[in-house]
Amino acid sequence: MRIISLCPSNTELVHYLGLTKYLVGVDDFSDWPKSIKALPKLGPDLNINIDLVESLKPDLVLASLSVPGMEKNIEQLEKRHLPFVTYNPQSLQDIKEDLIHLGMETGHEEKAHELAEIFNNIINSYKEISSSIENKPSIYWEWWPKPVFTPGRVNWLTEISELAGGRNIFADQNVANYQTDWVDVKNRNPDHICLIWVGVKESKMNKKAIQKRPGWNDLSALKENNVHILEESLFCRPSPRLLIGLQKLAALLHSSKYPIYSEASDPLLQPKKS
Q1: What are the pLDDT digits (tens) for 83-126?
Q2: Region at 87 (left for phi over 0; alpha for psi -120 to 50; beta for the rest)
């Protein structure tokens, strides 16, 4: 089988199912696992080189609609009559269902259901801990600083916040992606600020930059030094790696109540216990 992935989250789905060896090409932003580094790069996810995709003679192309503008990739795949599936998850449940669907499409249904069970167990265990927490700090997630974009209710980061014993300050907006401004964020006065600028490496982000925003030095998050630069790869991509992000956030918010976070801890990739 020859598989092509057109976005990082789909590439990660492939790896969790143990199908990485079947990948013959990926988009420019796919960077995990490291073993895909030598694969042909097909261009950025919003501008895929469909000629190159076609030349690789795929048996299955994994497309996405997770970012506005990806529609043109779908149109080109249809035009070329290339075999593809499209994923557009907005929730943890959607991600689990995509995992199962890809397992069915590739003949690895048993593996997919095995992973889905582990996925469910992790979420349920964090849900149980979260339900016992009375004081849940508010979180402001920043996808982009100017103009300001942040996740609303219809996004996995709201779920992640709740499972980690917190709450997204923009959960009252019934959308996946909400555009607001610095004044609105200031008025909501979050307890924690989590910076995950899309497409920007953590090393290029500076906490001090937000201190220059009008009135932000009065925010609880800044007064308590609760400004966090987090990995885009663990919080912005709709793949099972979000569970690692969940572990990190939960340990950050409530270190005494949740398991200790370890960068090497990925329960979905741990050997199955006999």
Answers
A1: 999 999 999 999 999 999 999 999 999 999 999 999 999 999 99
A2: beta
Q: CA 135 → CA 131, 197, 206, 228, 260, distances in Å?
A: 10, 28, 29, 20, 20
Residue of 20, 93, 83 whose CA lies nearest to 57: 83
Judged against a pLDDT cut of 80, whether residue 263 lies above it is answered with no
The residue behind tokens 């700090």 is: 137
- Spatial CB neighbours of 85, under 8 Å, sequence gap ≥ 6: 60, 61, 62, 63, 101, 102, 105
Helices and strands, counts by H and E, the chain = 10, 11
Q: Which two tokens stand for residue 12?
A: 């990660």
Mean predicted confidence (pLDDT) in 146-151? 95
Whether residue 41 contacts residue 98, with contact meaning beta carbons closer than 8 Å, is answered with no
Question: For residue 8, which of 78, 67, 60 has the smallest C-alpha distance?
Answer: 67
pLDDT for res 64:
95
